[in-house]
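Q: How would the structure tokens look for this protein?
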Amino acid sequence: METQWLDPYLWAEQQWGTLRLGDPRRTRRAVQLGTALAACPEGSLPQQCGTWAELKAAYRLLEGSTLDHPSVCAAHWQHTRAQAQRSAGPVLFIQDTTTLDFSAHPATVGLGHIGDTHGQGLMMHTALTVTTQDTVPQILGVAWQQTWARTTVNKGHETRAERAKRRTEYDVWAETVQAIGSAPPDCTWVSVGDRGSDVFSSLRIARQLDWHVLIRLAQNRCVRTAQGDDKVLDWMRRHPPVAMISLSRPAEQGRPKREVVLGVAYDVGWLRAPRTGAERHHPAQQVWCVRAYELQTGGQELEWVLLSTLPVITIEQALEQWNDPPGADQEARHFAPVSP
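A: Here is the predicted structure in token form.
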């Protein structure tokens, strides 16, 4: 995966040259800092700034009361979305949540618990935008990002109505799609997420905004199939493979690198809303299910079940949805259809 880089200064000017920070000098400083970040993205802030004077100037800018996360990022978000609207092929908005660990700074205020609740920090959710119209996918930028601090909720004292209205971290997937906005006509925008994105409300809201969704299944949800009502995992595990993929699994946990053969199966069904909660009255959502699993172990060690709102009616489309699972080596691999 690649990104199209301009000259670092031109890129930074494009992103932050229109910032209004109360003083033109602060805007110029923001562009200078952005240039340093783009020129050395893998470095720390002292490495990026180069000198003590530049580092102090960066600290003064970042500590200013006129500077906050949304105001700094808004121009970049809009630029990324504009590029996505002009893309001729499908655009992937790859969502994920990162933990920002500030446990080494106990005096910092405004943080929440992280991990096993003994640490402190922030949660940051990002939508990285990637276009797939070229042979090599291109990174367009970040279309949305938000941070929050976890708070302790006394769930035992909530009423059912209060619990239904309370925001949870699972809402962030739908909030991201809503913040970016409806997919333009003739554009294919796809929200991509891991197991944490297996939230019915996120799927429903994305479809209302003309988005498509590709997620990894986490819950054994109820599904309506051509044969009747079933559970997604149970249903897909009864499907024989229609294709096989050979790939290399890297060494891990003391086990050497090895070759594995995965079976791939797919089918279409209607994902039913949860029986309880705020989503229980909403209609079912049509999804195509793709399962890839290690044939030798029957999926006990390696198994991925994906849900896609994009139609999957051929083996090639099933493989496109699946692509490369986590933990798969990026070496060349081959597949062969299974004879009926």
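The domain at 1-67 is CATH 1.10.246.40 (Serum Albumin; Chain A, Domain 1).

The chain has a mean pLDDT of 85.

Upvote if useful.
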